[in-house]
Design a protein that fits this description.
By secondary structure, the chain is an alpha+beta fold. 34% of the residues lie in helices and 27% in strands.
Length: 406
């Protein structure tokens, strides 16, 4: 933190922003922390539109922020949930190679999981696979017994209670219009007024680029946020017994998406998905959600067109899966061959804030950038919710290090 800092602001009332605000109040008793959230509730976007999975850390490049913070975050999350009586169910997860062609990819995931120190991870053959998930078929699988499901919105509400109990303020319906940094502090302006703080942390997800441009245009030179919609189905109540816990395919290593999977939530429902479709607005939860300004900004970024040129076949497949239910179902039937179209009904969608580099590559790790008094969370896709408490620790420690260096 800046020397003598007495006030701090966080833009974004999702789980990462709230975790940062909570960490600040815990590490600096007496500091005045304000959270700005443009919606009328916390967890209104990515934090409240996901499958609720507590990831174990099996996929991520060893040594990356994702790998380190996911494992640490999962441990902190469990402690937090126990302390606040937040619902958490340890259900276990199978990652299934549907054919022999996918066994090499499964072996790479196993290598990463082992290097990351994921507890309990093990390879299972067809016989044990059938014991864990009787209706699943495949050439082999990895089993992660400690992958869990949790109530992320409930976690967010518990964090709000901690922040306000420590004297912090949550400003809902407070869309930040401008941010300006000066030697004496950072000024944040919304329609309700103007405030100056010693430190600012921007955890704005889908809308983070517009704020990053105001505090350091160079931050936008190499990457921009491109929205990807993830559409879900859910299993009808009489079909939920088709899976006991969580079942995932072997993901395509070229993309930071995990493929269409089945995840049981804390209430017993089973989500099917998500896919990954380029959204036509930053908050494009439906095909008809088109915003000209967002679409123009997405199209102006050279990385968008390079991404499309490199991966147009994948994009067309995802669009087709989105529009034609039987094609979506085909993804599931690779490892659950008895699944029927009638078993699935359309459910909610989420929008992933995914950073794309100028060369069209997808940024596969958490990315933080800072100026003198501002910390920008530029890329925090899955497993950011699992990692949120550890991300908060990391950010506040980084602020301490920056202050010491000055």
């Amino acid at each position: 933190m800046a020397a003598g800092a007495r006030t701090a602001a966080v833009i974004g009332g999702g789980i990462v922003g709230l975790a940062v605000a909570r960490e600040l109040t815990a590490r600096y008793p007496g500091i005045q922390v304000t959270v700005f959230e443009k919606e009328d509730r916390v967890a209104a976007h990515q934090s409240g539109h996901n499958s609720g999975v507590v990831h174990a850390g099996i996929y991520y490049t060893p040594g990356s922020l994702k790998a380190r913070l996911c494992l640490r975050g999962g441990s902190l999350l469990r402690e937090f949930c126990a302390q606040h009586q937040i619902r958490l169910r340890e259900l276990g997860k199978l990652v299934v190679a549907s054919s022999a062609d996918e066994l090499a990819g499964l072996a790479e995931i196993e290598r990463r999981a082992t290097a990351n120190g994921v507890p309990g991870i093990r390879r299972v053959a067809a016989a044990e696979m059938a014991e864990i998930e009787p209706q699943v078929r495949g050439a082999g699988a990895l089993y992660s017994p400690h992958t869990a499901s949790v109530d992320f919105p409930g976690m967010c509400q518990a964090m709000v209670a901690e922040i306000t109990a420590a004297g912090g303020t949550i400003r809902l319906g407070a869309r930040v219009r401008s941010v300006s940094e000066a030697a004496f502090g950072v000024t944040v302006a919304s329609q309700a007024g103007e405030w100056t703080f010693d430190q600012l942390i921007v955890c704005a997800g889908l809308t983070g680029d517009s704020l990053a441009a105001q505090v350091g245009g160079a931050a936008l030179a190499d990457m921009r946020i491109v929205p990807f919609r993830g559409e879900y189905y859910e299993l009808r109540p009489d079909a939920r017994d088709r899976v006991r816990g969580m079942v995932y395919p072997v993901p395509d290593p070229r993309y930071p998406f995990l493929g269409v999977h089945l995840t049981r939530d804390v209430d017993g429902g089973v989500h099917v998905g998500p896919n990954a479709v380029l959204a036509l607005s930053l908050e494009g939860y439906r095909w008809r959600d088109v915003r000209a300004r967002d679409l123009r900004d997405i199209a102006r970024w050279p990385g968008t067109w390079r991404l499309i040129r490199q991966h147009w076949r994948y994009g067309l497949k995802e669009m087709s899966d989105s529009l034609v239910k039987r094609r979506y179902l085909a993804n599931v039937r690779r490892y659950l061959p008895d699944m029927r179209s009638a078993d699935m009904v359309r459910s909610t969608a989420g929008v992933r804030a995914q950073a794309v580099r100028r060369d069209g590559s997808l940024v596969d790790d958490f990315v933080l950038q800072s100026t003198d008094r501002v910390m920008l969370v530029r890329n925090a896709p899955s497993p950011a919710a699992t990692s949120s408490l550890a991300i908060a620790e990391h950010i506040v420690s980084a602020l301490d290090t920056t202050a010491t260096a000055r």
